[in-house]
Amino acid sequence: MFSYGMLLYELLTGRRPSLGHHQLQIAKKLSKGIRPLLGSPEEVQFCCLQTLLTECWDTKPEKRPVALQCLRQMQQPGFPSLRYVLSCDSHAQLFLSPLQGYSAVFWSGDKDSRNYSIVNVEKGNMEVKRISCPGSRISCQMKMGNTLWMTTEDQEVFIYSLKDMCPLSQPQKLFSCPAIITCLCPVPEREQNPARVFAGMSDGLVAVYSLLDGLPVEGEAYLCSHTLNKTMFGLKDSDPRQNPYPVRCMVLVGSGSQLWFSNGPGVLVLDCWSLRAVRRLDPYVPPSSVVSMTTSFCAWEEEAVWMLDDHANMLLLYHAASYQLCAQYW
């Protein structure tokens, strides 16, 4: 297994292991536990393979894994995808989205002790560590252009002007909302329509904020999932799908023309500009609730929507244009 560890070293580094030119010199170094230089996990960017090879060339042969153990490790689903493990202390919340680029924001604490740290997930290093930012516990966060939207469990929305996401000073705008915001989704401006932000809430409402110079203007609109289900899709009040489900996720579809948002076991499809509900999908049945959605372009170069529930743990794939279920995975 020692030789296998050296083989893994070559795979990771692209060079042959070298500890000298003479056999006696090399043997002495190996007996003292000296090994070829490998670099930090962030530099290697293949944490599982690096860990395995260091186990294989352990100084004590009895501590080295046998071939069957190596095989089982390498067959684990996370083995080929885990790049590195980064120590970033204990945090309560993580916010990560494509809109934030390579920045992952960790929050911990509450009230006066609330603080945040920022990790660059591409470089694998912590750029900001535990910067104080007093306030209530964060419920949702979104970066939009050069502003950061933060919502709290006290039903408040803070909008900060950003410079590399640090530090957060006084907000440009602060306002209250009728319920806790659970997810945010920005819609860029289009022709005569201003940019908007959709905010899903814990009581099933969806708030629609129109923006001017990146900030919301007065007169936001509210859409009620219960009302849409009843008036547009004929669901009765006694229907379990009419329970007051929180809006847990939302995603833009059709180049930003539609908003798909979760409604318990179902999904409501909204026209982003007319704010008209155009479709209801029922991918799951109670007690399942949709907890995550994302879009992608499939092999046939058409948009697809992926969704996952919290009960059956079933992944579904929908064709976005036709609303047809294409595949399901358990």
In words, what does this structure look like?
Residues 1-79 form the Protein kinase domain. There is one protein chain. A hairpin with a 5-residue loop joins strand 16 and strand 17 (277-281). The protein is elongated and about 85 Å long. It folds into two domains: 1-81, Transferase(Phosphotransferase) domain 1 (Transferase(Phosphotransferase), domain 1, Orthogonal Bundle), CATH 1.10.510; 177-329, 7 Propeller (Methylamine Dehydrogenase, Chain H). It is built from six helices and 21 strands. Helix 1 (2-13) packs antiparallel against helix 4. The chain has helices at 2-13, 23-31, 41-44, 47-56, 67-74, 225-233; strands at 93-95, 103-108, 115-120, 125-132, 138-144, 147-152, 156-161, 173-176, 181-187, 196-201, 205-212, 215-216, 221-224, 250-253, 258-263, 266-271, 277-281, 290-297, 303-309, 315-319, 324-329.
List keywords for this structure.
single chain; 330 residues; alpha+beta; Transferase(Phosphotransferase), domain 1; 2 domains; 5-stranded antiparallel beta sheet; kinase; protein kinase activity; ATP binding; Leucine-rich repeat serine/threonine-protein kinase 1
